[in-house]
Amino acid sequence: MYKHTSLQEIQDSCQFFNTKAISVLIIDAKTLNIIDVNEHFSEITMYKRSELLNKDILDFIEDKSPVKDRNVFKNDKLNSLKIRFVGKQEILNLELFFNYDIDLNFIFIVCRDITEELKVIETLESNLKELERLNHLMIGRELKMIELKKEINRLKAKLEKYES
What we know:
- By secondary structure, the chain is an alpha+beta fold.
- The protein has helices at residues 7-13, 39-45, 49-52, 70-74, 115-163; strands at 23-28, 34-37, 80-86, 91-101, 106-113.
- It has two domains: 7-113, PAS domain (Beta-Lactamase, 2-Layer Sandwich); 116-164.
């Protein structure tokens, strides 16, 4: 938690507010309206800054999301949260990191787009399931081969018995 005297002071003290590598937004802790966003946040969501300002952040969270609850955002003990943010052209998976300024009632949020990360995880999980399936088939095949070898040896022994 920080103690600042103005929104401008928050923006000035935040070295990455104006960077193009990190997405940042500031919301009002009481109303949850978006007070400011940096250029990078506008770029990833494809909204103009003016389309976001003074809008309730909950309006941009996917309807079926369990975090679409005012009380979740108003919990000043919250450090991070994963949400599905409705961008202008696609739904983004964002991880939000919170800093609360109690005196000014601002919530300063740094965002990380984890959409691609989640796609990679989904692909890896799918590949893992396929590998497990193949492993199960191969183990089953090996067990069958062992069983057949035993049967061959048993039949060989029986044949040798009849030949002698």
